[in-house]
Specification:
The protein is mainly α and about 230 residues long. The chain has one domain. It is about 75% helix and about 0% strand. Helix 2 (about 45-90) packs across helix 3 (about 95-105). The chain is elongated, with a radius of gyration of 25 Å.
């Protein structure tokens, strides 16, 4: 693509993967921070917090992977049912499907002449007809049907593990509990801000979303820390 034809504002590639990274990472950071803060507030030693936090991070990552996998597999099966049904209707009820497509095109603002041109093109290519019908009627991207159900869950699980371990990491060093808590909070809030604001995609940077994400993490840590203190007094 030459400079004259290059898209001025390109779209984000692999948007769905980035969404899973944000989801898994945010969950890992918030849950890891909240868990270690609660244990810290309860007066547990840093070594024990590090061990418990590591176990939580691994267990949480595994749970995130399998829950995301089951959800994605179910979603893909539903998409396949939609594809099969639309393909059958195009084969057995072509006139009705063409009428539906006509209405959808008109709803999108195409005039009568444009609608006829598009319909003539689609009638010659059933695969293209199917693709457009799924996209316009159901909001389904047919390319997703053949995607690997492991990819999105894998990214979610890995980022959960990494961000949860980030919250736990200060407790692995021989420092006072207060210093470990402050370091854990600082690292986690920076990570949450980066994920929430999409700082890793500069053209989609969102300051407000980043601040909101960090505030949620901070509130969770503060609440669980107070709960830890309360529990330790019983």
């Amino acid at each position: 693509m030459n400079a004259a034809n290059k898209e001025k504002h390109p779209h984000i590639p692999a948007r769905n993967v980035l969404d899973r990274i944000t989801l898994g990472g945010s969950d890992g950071a918030i849950e890891g921070l909240a868990t270690t803060s609660a244990l810290n507030g309860a007066g547990i030693g840093t070594g024990t917090i590090a061990l418990a936090g590591f176990a939580f991070a691994v267990a949480g990552a595994i749970a995130m992977f399998f829950s995301s996998y089951l959800s994605r597999r179910s979603e893909l099966r539903s998409l396949q049912i939609d594809v099969d049904r639309e393909r059958m209707e195009i084969e057995t009820e072509p006139e009705e499907e063409q009428g539906e497509m006509r209405e959808l095109l008109e709803k999108d603002g195409y005039d009568a002449q444009e609608v006829e041109v598009i319909l003539q093109r689609l009638k010659k290519n059933k695969d293209l007809f199917l693709k457009e019908m799924l996209r316009r009627e159901l909001g389904v991207n047919i390319e997703e049907v053949g995607s690997d159900p492991f990819v999105w869950p894998l990214f979610a699980g890995i980022t959960f593990l990494l961000l949860a371990l980030l919250a736990v990491s200060p407790y692995a060093f021989p420092v006072p509990r207060t210093d470990a808590l402050l370091a854990s909070v600082g690292l986690s809030l920076v990570a949450l801000f980066a994920l929430g604001s999409r700082a890793f995609v500069p053209r989609n940077f969102n300051l407000k979303a980043g601040v909101e994400s960090a505030l949620v993490g901070g509130a969770a840590a503060g609440l669980l820390y107070l709960i830890g203190i309360a529990v330790s007094r019983f």
